[in-house]
C-alpha cells in the first residue's frame, strides 16, 4: 500500500496510478559511484519499489569529491552495503538487493534477470558492451550515463537497438576507458547526469515522455551547451 503522504509532492507530476507502477517496478543499478549513488538516491526517493544495487568496489578517499554515498567515516566500506543503508535511511518501504561483486560474463545475467530496467553507471566501455549484450539477451531496456570532467552523456537502449556501437564504434576497436581518465570527474556533473538518468528511468517505467531512445543527450557545463544527437 502506497503511503500517499510520502509522495504527495510527486502528485500532479506523477499520478497515484503511476506511483503504483513505480512501486511495483524493479530496477538494477550497475555501478554505485558518482552516477550510481545519485541514481540510487533519486529512484529510492521517487518510490521505485525494488532496487538491486551492484558494485564490487569499496570507498577510498578519492571518492569523496563526487560520490554521494561516500563519507569520511565509511572509507573502506562496500559501496553496495553503503547504498543499501542509504536507501533504508530515506525510504524503508523499498526492497533492496545488493551484490558486492564486479560484473562479468558469468554473473551478470543472474543479477538482472526479471528486472524491468537496468541502469548503466559503469566506467569502462568494454563492460558497457557486455551489459548491453546481456540486457538484450534478457529483453530489458538499459539507461546509460557517462561523465568526463564537466561533460556528460545519457542515452536509452532498448533490446533491439544498436546502442553503444553508434556511440563508441565497434567493440573490437574501441578503447576500454573513456576520456575521464584524463579529465577527472566533478561532483556537480556527476549528479546532473545521474538526475538525467533517473528521469529517463521514470519515463521508461511509466511509458511516457520523450525518451532518449536512439538519441544521445550531451551536456557541456563549461559552455552551458545541451544537445540531443540522433543516433540513427
Task: Describe the secondary-structure layout.
Blueprint: H1 16-23, E1 26-30, H2 34-46, E2 50-54, H3 79-90, E3 95-99, H4 108-112, E4 117-120, H5 125-138, E5 142-148, E6 151-157, H6 165-168, H7 180-183, H8 187-206, E7 215-220, E8 225-230
Parallel strand pairs: 1-2, 1-4, 2-3, 4-5
Antiparallel strand pairs: 5-6, 6-7, 7-8
What are the key terms here?
single chain, 232 residues, alpha/beta, Rossmann fold, eight-stranded mixed beta sheet, 8 helices, globular
Structural summary, described in words:
- By secondary structure, the chain is of the alpha/beta class.
- It has one domain (16-230): Rossmann fold (3-Layer(aba) Sandwich), CATH 3.40.50.720.
- The protein is built from eight helices and eight strands, in the order H-E-H-E-H-E-H-E-H-E-E-H-H-H-E-E.
- It has helices spanning 16-23, 34-46, 79-90, 108-112, 125-138, 165-168, 180-183, 187-206; strands at residues 26-30, 50-54, 95-99, 117-120, 142-148, 151-157, 215-220, 225-230.
- An eight-stranded mixed β-sheet has the order 3-2-1-4-5-6-7-8, with helices on both faces.
- Strand 1 (26-30), helix 2 (34-46) and strand 2 form a beta-alpha-beta unit.
- It starts with 15 loop residues before the first helix and ends with a strand.
Amino acid at each position: 500500500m502506497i503511503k500517499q503522504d510520502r509522495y504527495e509532492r510527486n502528485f500532479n507530476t506523477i499520478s497515484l496510478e503511476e506511483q503504483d507502477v513505480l512501486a511495483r517496478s524493479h530496477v538494477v543499478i550497475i555501478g554505485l559511484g558518482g552516477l550510481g549513488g545519485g541514481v540510487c538516491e533519486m529512484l529510492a526517493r521517487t518510490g521505485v519499489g525494488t532496487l538491486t544495487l551492484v558494485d564490487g568496489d569499496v570507498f577510498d578517499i578519492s571518492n569523496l569529491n563526487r560520490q554521494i554515498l561516500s563519507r569520511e567515516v565509511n572509507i573502506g566500506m562496500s559501496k553496495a552495503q553503503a547504498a543499501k543503508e542509504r536507501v533504508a535511511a530515506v525510504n524503508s518501504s523499498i526492497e533492496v538487493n545488493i551484490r558486492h561483486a564486479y560484473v562479468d560474463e558469468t554473473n551478470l545475467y543472474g543479477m538482472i534477470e526479471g528486472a524491468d530496467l537496468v541502469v548503466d553507471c559503469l566506467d569502462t566501455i568494454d563492460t558497457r558492451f557486455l551489459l548491453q549484450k546481456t540486457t538484450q539477451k534478457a529483453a530489458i531496456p538499459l539507461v546509460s550515463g557517462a561523465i568526463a570532467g564537466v561533460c556528460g552523456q545519457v542515452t536509452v537502449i532498448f533490446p533491439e537497438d544498436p546502442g553503444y556501437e553508434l556511440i563508441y564504434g565497434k567493440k573490437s576497436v574501441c578503447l576500454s576507458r573513456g576520456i575521464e581518465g584524463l579529465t577527472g570527474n566533478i561532483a556537480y556533473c556527476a549528479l546532473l547526469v545521474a538526475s538525467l538518468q533517473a528521469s529517463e528511468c521514470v519515463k521508461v517505467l511509466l511509458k511516457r515522455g520523450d525518451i532518449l531512445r536512439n538519441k544521445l543527450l550531451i551536456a557541456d557545463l563549461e559552455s552551458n551547451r545541451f544537445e540531443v544527437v540522433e543516433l540513427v
